Amino acid sequence: MPELLIDFITSLDGYAAAEGWPGWWGLEGPEYLAWLGEAPEADYTVLMGATTYRVMSGFAAAGEPGTEPLAGMSKIVFSKTLHEPLALANTQLVAGDAVETVREMKASESKSMRTIGSLTLCRSLLKAGLVDRFRVVVFPVITGSTGRERIYDGYPDVALDLISSRTFDGRIQLLDYVPTVLSGPPRS
């Protein structure tokens, strides 16, 4: 069965972005960019929502470092507001229900999937029990005043079992987990 990987980048305080800050909070370093250039999971289909698609296609059009591998990857955008043709190559637009589409893909296809951003999409896939791995890259910044898009608001309680970790450039943390959605706090 194909794997579904949720893949986030975040500030230490759990924001996906911050007002006035550049992509990766301007803290991407050579080791991190080299890892992105190696295109981990390049053979996975990338899943995203309309907002993330707009951001990523803008980054790619501007030549933002680290976005080059995205061009060659197979991508699916779940949206009822976008229309074809889409600017990023190798992108399929799906207007139907994302949870049902991903459930069908996991049951009938052999290609694994991963997300980029797409907070609402990821939340719905996790709640539906479809996520096999949860990867977070934590950037060493707190954006309490300027942070926007709190990642975990509205999420269920989730236990995370760490399966690997890595440090890039002496400061950026990659944490890779297997998630288990909980019905509530564990009993003590």
Question: Could you characterize the architecture of this molecule?
Answer:
- It is a single chain.
- By secondary structure, this protein is α/β, with parallel strands linked by helices.
- The protein is built from 5 helices and 10 strands; from the N terminus they run E-E-H-E-H-H-E-E-H-E-H-E-E-E-E.
- The strands form 2 sheets. Strands 5-4-3-6-1-7-10-9 form an 8-stranded mixed β-sheet.
- A hairpin with a 3-residue loop joins strand 9 and strand 10.
- The chain is globular.
Radius of gyration from the CA trace? 16 Å
> Please, how many domains?
1
**Unreliable residue runs:** none
Kindly state the percentage of residues in helix: 10-25%
Write the element-wise H/E pattern from the N-terminal end onward.
EEHEHHEEHEHEEEE
Overall CATH architecture? 3-Layer(aba) Sandwich
Quickly give the structural class: alpha/beta
Largest sheet: 8 strands, mixed
CATH fold assignment: Dihydrofolate Reductase, subunit A
